[in-house]
Amino acid sequence: MPEEVLFKSESTQSRAEIADYLRAVADKLSAHEAVTLSAGSDSVTLEVPERPTFEVKAERETDSSGGNAERSLELEIEWREGGSTDGADGSLSVE
Prior knowledge:
The chain is 17% helix and 32% strand. By secondary structure, the protein is an alpha+beta fold. It is globular. The relative contact order is 0.14.
């Protein structure tokens, strides 16, 4: 299935700024409100269903010489438009 990017933003921010952004998203999810993402003139509003699939992934990528490594933490919330989710249930914690 082809992918259509509805919104994308990438910027260097402090840990505190990232935490504030994640808190704002969490507050919208807790309040059962739509989440609007905006950067400059771009924006998208998403109605997140009650039980979407939540994926957490930590990666390490190295260049072809194996010298430089880049780590990433990816947090993804996904769901099928107009349908139910197929994700596995399970517990997740941050320590």
